[in-house]
Every structure is written in structure tokens, then in C-alpha cells.
Amino acid sequence: MKTVPNQLFRIVAVSLLITIAACKKHDSVIEPATKAANSYSGEKIQNLFSLLCLISKTTPGFFPPQVARAYGYIGIADYEAVYNGIPGAQSLAGQLNGLSVTDMPVVNKTIAYNWSIAANAATTEMIRRMFEINITTGNAHTLDSMEQANLSDLSIGVSQDVIDRSVKFGKEVTAAIYKYSTTDNGHQSFLDPFQLPYTLPSDLSCWVPTGAVTTPISPKWGANRPFIQANISNAQPVAPLTYSKDSSSDFYHQALAVYNQVKNNTPDQVTIAKYWADDPFNTCTPTGHTFNIMTQLLKENNATLEKTAVAYAKLCIAENDAFIDCWKGKYQYVLIRPVSYIKRYIDSSFTTVIGTPPFPAYTSGHSCEIGAGAEIFIDLFTDGSGNYNFEDDSQLQYGFAARTYTNFNEMAEECANSRFYGGIHYPMDNTSGLVIGRTIGNNVNHLLIWPKNIK
Questions:
Q1: 42: closest CA among 393, 299, 313?
Q2: Relative to the CA of 422, which of 125, 282, 320, 347 has its CA 20 to 30 Å away?
Q3: By three-state DSSP, how is residue 387 classified?
Q4: How far from each other are the two terminal CA atoms of the chain, in whole angstroms?
Q5: What is the number of alpha carbons within 13 Å of residue 28 lying toward its C-beta?
Q6: What H or E segment, with its residue span, contains residue 250?
């Protein structure tokens, strides 16, 4: 038998040792298998939702209903990219109105995925799809850069096949959710936010223009498909008080209450009116404000990808449906705004604290959306009492001081009352709006199957 020369033996031996050592080093840094979503930070998705505020503010055609819809599908895409990594979680397919299980891609449970990479791919791609051709060049570039920076960071220690598979799955999720979105009656509504032609009714009780905009925004929005059908079928407002110009009538007293409030506002009430105004194109709208609060709460709690995905999905569904439900009521009653009524019957020189938006009064969109949002916050961050001490610093970017709250219901009440202090809503608009919003939030919390004990 031939023997291996000593020098050759040493070379082979050393090479083998180097290979073994290299393999051990490689194995030590390569993510070996699928990890649970709660093992990843939610920070990168939270940062994407912060960017979403800027995109919402600066994209033409995105009034409050359009912004709520965009957030809705973005949050669902994020959740669908992540839920396989959450113990006990189920897809929203088969639960949401019109979204079939067969519409969605499936994972191969015998091989590894990185849920954070999948979420990054799904969320960034859905942002592109929702803002589409109207997104500014600068915002598109920022989104691209953030996606790539996230991917680069998340790919450290992850094998290329897992990276590729996770990105592919995330984008497949987005493709499916985007296709679903195109059938809800709101597809590309940003191209025609006034949904013309629309003929205003001419009754004295009906909305009339309150400024330069002579046609109301999105009069057909109430016909959009909600994510949860019960958010339309069991969350409609009672009829507003019967219109009357009689100074002894309940309706007159609603308008008189607005008039007296504006005349006697305290400095803090004026601040509250402006703080919650959230005008489109100056801010990222009421929905964006509520999401900024959610993002702040998630960051303060060091929320994992698991909790981040569930939190955004819940709030996205609630906000989308709150605006559909609210707009359905607005154009069912087409109620005159307080400023128009007051100028007609009480004081022709009356002016409001903030601008009156161009759509009917009843009910208040702010009240609907914050009522829905508050129920989501209560479910995620409290024992059901709503008690939670926090400072809302989301409006610092617009020059406001932070406001402090001890309860999410207190926050919601302040937001609703801000429209009364501002002179743009009757008290009944806000009261009914909060009732509707809370119903919608509760429906989201309890009519869908969500994972328990999220971390």
C-alpha cells in the first residue's frame, strides 16, 4: 500500500482543519432556521410607518379618506408577511370581507424564513402600490433607500437563500393584497378625490360650500367595501336632530352651543382645536396623527415585530372602516356645517377657530377615527380600563408642545371636543362619532381572530 508523503499529509490535514474551522465560523453567524417574529425588533417597520406620515402629507390627492385606505392595506400586508412567525396567529384571509384564503401565498414550513425581511419587503412594496403614480420623486427615493438599508442590516448573518425566499414571500403577499385592494371601489381614488359628477341636494338643511372648494370630498366613499362588514351593518349613526331654524328648537341650540363655545374659548381650548386639526397636506391627516401615536407607543414599549404587526393591522383595519362608515353617514344626511347655519340665523360675522373642511357635518370624522383608535390602544396597552400615562409628542414636528394624557378615553374625548372648540362641528357630531368609532374598534378587537399574549 502506498503511503502519503509527510508534507502532503500536513497540507491535507491543515486544509481540512481550515475548512472545518471556516464551516464552524460560518455556521455561527448564519441564521440556522426560522425564528419567531417576537425575536425580531419592530423598529424598522415602525420607521416605515413614520415615513408613511410624510408620504401621506405630501402626495397629491390624499385627503383623509384616501390616507385611511392607504394605511389600511399597508398594515394588512405587513401582518400577512409576519403572522406565520406568531404562535397561534391566523391569516386575515378568510376573515376580512372579500379576501379569500386561496388569494394568498403560502410558506413552505419545512424551510427557513426571516419574518423581518419579509415584512420589510411587503410593507415597502405596499406603500409604493398605495401611492403609485402620485408619489413624489423624493419620497420614492427615500422609500427605496430605507428598504435597501433595512434589508442590508437585516441580512447580516442570514444565508442568501433565506434572504431571497423571505423577500419573495413578502412581495407575493403585497401582490395579493394589492389585487384585493383594486376591487373595493376606492382604487386610485386619489386621482379623483371629489368623485365627480355629484349633485348636492338643495334642501336648507344640506351642506353648502364653506370656502373656496365648492364640491365636497369623496361623496361615494360610503360605498367602499369595508374590511369587516359589521362595521357598516351595526355601526351606523342614529339620525341627527331634525333641522330647524326655530330658536327654540334642539337643532338651533346645537348651533348656538357652537357659537357660544367659540366666543368663550379658553386659550387651552384654542390650542386643542389647532393641535388636533390635522389638515391634509399640512399634516398627515387624523389617521396619520393616530398612527404616529401608535408608533410612539410601540417604540416606548420596545415592541417586537410580532406586536408591531398585530398593532398596525388592528389600527389599519379600524381606521379604514371608520372613514367608510363615517362618510356613509355624512352623505346620507348631507348636514349643513355650523358655520353656515350660524351665519344664516345667528351671527353673519361668525368665524371659526380653524378651517371648516369641505364635506358635510354629521358625523365627525375625527371622532369616528379616534374612537376606533382608542379602542385599539386600550386593547393593546391596558387592562381594559384605558388607563395609560403618556405624552403625545407626535405634533412636535408641527410646532406644538406635547400633550399629556392618563387615559386613552380622555385622549379620544379631547380630540372629539377639539372640533367643537374649533367651531366646525355640532356637539351631536362628536358624540355620535365617538360611539361609532368605539363600536368599530371593538369589532376589530373581537370579531377577528388575533394571536393571544403577543410580546
A1: 299
A2: 320
A3: strand
A4: 64
A5: 6
A6: helix 250-263
